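User: Sequence recovery, please. Input:
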């Protein structure tokens, strides 16, 4: 599932979020308890305040559970696997950047000789 409208606010209430996904507030709270990647902040009254990153994580969960038919355990495993792949990709990209900078420094040194 992809949220259709632009997310422009800093915080969204649980009611707004449940409406985005056409699910109940209780399902959002249940998923929050089940999935460690969901960590909405709470105001002084204890109301959940979802940020864009929380909504993006809910999109991933919704897609796995509601659209692709994963069990909750299966969705958790899939999210861990994706996180590992994402982390590896980030490390590879950082190493490529470092390599590029090192090659640039080497070229600069050779030109100075």
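Assistant: Recovered sequence (113 residues):
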């Amino acid at each position: 599932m992809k949220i259709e409208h632009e997310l422009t606010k800093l915080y969204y209430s649980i009611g707004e979020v449940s409406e985005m996904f056409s699910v109940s507030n209780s399902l959002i709270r249940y998923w929050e308890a089940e999935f460690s990647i969901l960590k909405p902040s709470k105001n002084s009254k204890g109301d959940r305040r979802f940020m864009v990153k929380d909504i993006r994580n809910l999109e991933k969960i919704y897609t796995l559970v509601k659209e692709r038919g994963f069990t909750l355990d299966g969705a958790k495993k899939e999210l861990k696997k994706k996180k590992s792949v994402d982390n590896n990709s980030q490390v590879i990209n950082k190493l490529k950047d470092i390599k590029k900078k090192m090659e640039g420094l080497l070229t600069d040194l050779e030109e100075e000789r």
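The mean pLDDT is 87.
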